[in-house]
Amino acid sequence: MSLSTNKMFYVSWEAFHRATKELAHQLLGKNYTAIVAVSRGGLVPAAILARELNIRVVDSICVASYEHDKQGSLRILKDASIEDSEQLLVVDDLVDTGETAKALREHFPKACFVTVYAKPQGKPLVDHYITDIEQDTWIQLPWDMELAYSKPLADK
Ligand SMILES: O=P(O)(O)OC[C@H]1O[C@H](OP(=O)(O)OP(=O)(O)O)[C@H](O)[C@@H]1O
Ligand SMILES: Nc1nc2[nH]cnc2c(=O)[nH]1
Ligand SMILES: [Mg+2]
C-alpha cells in the first residue's frame, strides 16, 4: 500500500525496541547462526536481534522495489554473501503487500523470514512476527519521524 491512507500507526524507538526484543524471545534457542538484514528497514531490527541472540555474522541484502507498471518486482542492488541455510534469519521491519517477502523467500528458500510488524496480505509469508497492523494503516517508523511541538487542544 502507499502513503495515501490517513490511518497511521506511530511507533516510538522504545516501542520498536520492545517489540523486536519480543521477537528475539520467540527465536531464542533455535540456533540461528547468521542474519541477513533487508536494507534499509531491516537494518535496525537486525542489529537488535544480533545483540539479543548473540549472532555475530550479519550481512545485508539491498533491494529497491519498482513502482508504476512493474509493481511487485524487486531489484537487488547488492546481494548478501551469506549462503542460504536453515540456520539463517532474514530480517525485515515489516511486511505489507508481501511482495518484498515473496522475492526474498525465493532468494533464501531455506531461511527463516521474520518481521516486527505484519499486515494481513503479507502475513502468510513470514515465519515469525510480533504485531498485527491493519492493511489500510501506514506504519510510521521511528527513524522516519522527529519530535515536534504540539499545540494545546484549546488553541487548535
Ligand atoms: O510487503 P511490501 O509491500 O513489499 O512492503 C514491505 C517493504 O516495504 C518497506 O521497505 P521499502 O521498500 O519502503 O524500502 P526501505 O526499507 O529501504 O525503506 C519495508 O521495509 C519492507 O521492506
Ligand atoms: N514506513 C512504512 N513503509 C512501508 N512500506 C510498505 N508499507 C509500509 C508502511 O506501512 N510503513
Ligand atoms: Mg524495506
From TrEMBL:
A GO molecular-function annotation: hypoxanthine phosphoribosyltransferase activity
Binding site for GMP: D96, T97, G98, E99, T100, W138, I139
Binding site for Mg(2+): D93
UniProt binding sites for xanthine: D96, I139
InterPro entries: PRTase-like, PRTase_dom, Xanthine_Guanine_PRibTrfase
Pathway: Purine metabolism; GMP biosynthesis via salvage pathway; GMP from guanine: step 1/1; Purine metabolism; XMP biosynthesis via salvage pathway; XMP from xanthine: step 1/1
Domain Phosphoribosyltransferase, chain residue ranges per copy: 13-149
E.C. number(s) listed in UniProt: 2.4.2.22
Residues reported in the UniProt entry to bind guanine: D96, I139
One Pfam family from the record: Pribosyltran
Entry coiled-coil feature ranges: none
Entry-linked NCBIfam families: PRK09177.1 (NF006613)
Reported function: Purine salvage pathway enzyme that catalyzes the transfer of the ribosyl-5-phosphate group from 5-phospho-alpha-D-ribose 1-diphosphate (PRPP) to the N9 position of the 6-oxopurines guanine and xanthine to form the corresponding ribonucleotides GMP (guanosine 5'-monophosphate) and XMP (xanthosine 5'-monophosphate), with the release of PPi. To a lesser extent, also acts on hypoxanthine.
Subunit structure: Homotetramer.
Family classification: Belongs to the purine/pyrimidine phosphoribosyltransferase family. XGPT subfamily.
Protein name listed in UniProt: Xanthine-guanine phosphoribosyltransferase
Taxonomic source organism: Rheinheimera nanhaiensis E407-8
